[in-house]
């Protein structure tokens, strides 16, 4: 549990910033001229304050929240995990991990999908935990959390046990391998610990995959909110110094400089003299990260990343992977992001020639295991509130059903449904075809989404909670309207059943796979007799004490609902390319 929020106060002209032993933070170290506060740093020369950098593998979020340090570095998924309780701002992207995070498996476990019934050790609510959940979800695996190795394991799920720190996951798995036990199937950790583990395992373990070609682990600067409000010039200096430091590190990586800089970084990141970095090993670690620059930051926060991986998309993916049963996530990411510091330095000359340089890394890309697709539940379709045949041309381009699903997914993503859809194949009786079902969402009377508390059946907040507002909410609760959309590609419209859809069935549909699994139908080419039909299910919940009830009819048609979200235009745009 995070401590009560309190503002950090500088020690005279010096602030404390905590990092971990990770090459992605090299820019901050170079800008500071090492770990210790000095007047020779970029921060002092340009903004008249000094920075004390400390290295720790602890998750010190309570200390950051309570004002014991000015700032720290973490990943977007961690922010989602602590959500509403984390009193910080995010002013800048530091880097992307491109291979530094890896999944190590026993040599007899060949695929992620083979982890059902087995146990992997991760560090809870860190990128280790998130990366494993992310890949498990992509491979159709549900998660079971074990208190320890003595507690029961689920035979049909991926089981997770936890360590307090990420660097302990490799130690725990390594010790299990040494004892010849099969109690653990793998771990998720950081390089170089993961590579060291594999080398010392004598063939008993291997690195199954890393995040080299998956822009899912994004390192960000998190700043104590009270400190940022009182000392905005210092936050501006941190942002500017970070980007300047990253520029210097990129010069090192390109070979334009490097001797003194690599030596400084190797010294700073060496925490154990027995396992010290040298210039070569430091340069190798730098190759596993993509450091941010100014245009990459703009694309990251404005959701315009060329290969995905924006702040909002990663955050929402983390919320979906953990689930609201496990975390109390803040759904409005704007409460964290503060890009005014980037805007203030954006016109400086050193940023004018910078370009986004994120590209796929060389080498093989980890491919998802062939997991059998899930069929649409037999209760679907119940009688819809309305339905609408979307007039798009599906034939004529030799497009497969899998490719159609990918294009619809892009349209849904553009309309704000990223990570908020379930994917199903139709059964043998109604196929070939598939259905994409959006998660239940809270809507306004005009059909536009309610952005605050959008997802789920919860009624909206009533603003500041006072005795009067509480009594008013209880006695005169506002009605809540909710929507679920099912986009079905099929040859014949599905025959609607007689029994209305229930909230329990909504939950079942929304817990479906987040991608289409393997099926012989994925290579079927859509011919002229295929149709795209939108089924609308609109619910009304009259008060907090009432269950949501399906609306037999609505003052909005299914077409108007699609237009209100922008989805109608996004689908047409996607299929006109």
List keywords for this structure.
D-Maltodextrin-Binding Protein, domain 2; globular; 31% helix; six-stranded mixed β-sheet; alpha+beta; 577 residues; seven-stranded antiparallel β-sheet; 3 domains
Summary, kept brief:
With 577 residues, this protein is of the alpha+beta class. It contains 19 helices and 19 strands.
Sequence-ordered SSE layout with sheet pairings:
Layout: E1 14-19, H1 26-32, H2 42-47, E2 50-55, H3 61-65, E3 71-75, H4 76-82, E4 88-97, E5 101-106, E6 119-123, H5 127-138, E7 143-145, E8 158-163, H6 167-178, E9 186-190, H7 193-200, E10 205-210, E11 218-224, H8 225-230, H9 232-253, H10 259-269, H11 279-286, E12 289-291, H12 294-301, H13 311-322, H14 340-345, E13 386-389, H15 401-414, E14 421-425, E15 434-438, E16 441-443, H16 467-475, E17 480-490, H17 503-510, E18 531-541, E19 549-550, H18 558-565, H19 567-574
Helix pairs in contact: 1-9, 4-13, 5-13, 6-7, 10-11, 15-19
